[in-house]
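Q: Convert this sequence to structure tokens.
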Amino acid sequence: MTTRSWKIQRYDHDVHQEVDDEVASEYPLTVVVNDKEFATMVCTPMNLEELVIGFLASEGIIRTYEEIERLTIDEDRGFAYTQTSKDIPIRTDVQKRWLGSCCGKSRAFYFQNDATTAKTIMDSFTITPSECYDLMESFQLEAGMFQRTGGVHQAAIASPEGLLKTYADIGRHNALDKLFGYLLKEKVKRKGKVILFSGRISSEVLLKISKIGLGLLLSKSAPTDLALELAEDLNITAVGFTRGQRMNVYTHHRRVQAPVQGGQRLE
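A:
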């Protein structure tokens, strides 16, 4: 159950009435890898298979979907059991601060697994401003669960022609991991694709975009400075405040280009 009905007193000035409100469900899921407990995440109980696949890829446990031999989800108990094709030592230090370099520059990663799984994006894909605005409008129209609860984040994969897949979750990282899991499971080609995101562009979000392997992120919210520094280093175009017919292109501006004469995008 992704949402629940909750009786509330809704006020309008000093007048209130009792009504049923819809709230997002919060669900703990423990991921077990090769019979060893790896992590527990709090998520929205939907698309759990994609969530687990994307989470394991984001954490560097797997590189491809084929490395998972078995994935079983016990929704009643809140456990996801995975077996991989090779034995993977589960480190106990993955959440310790670790400083390293990014692309030969003095950029600090918080966690060691980020330094080993982040990728520099090398595509030359471009998109027009109008296509960005249209995609964000479609993305907003897909936000049914947010409109009902106000309590979830949303992530989507798209081409300039339209949205391909959208996921929602109470956790912004979870929404991106679900998207990552879908791309791996369905073997979706990354070339010419865009990620749309409802939340703030933080350094952690930017690193997930890098791990997914896409060079263009459209968000309706603001970025942080560290996220933009990482975007510069990892060759990712970060676009924030995409609302209506306006947006801010913060990094690698060449991917967003107005049409040249004849209406063709530059490649």
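The chain has a mean pLDDT of 87.
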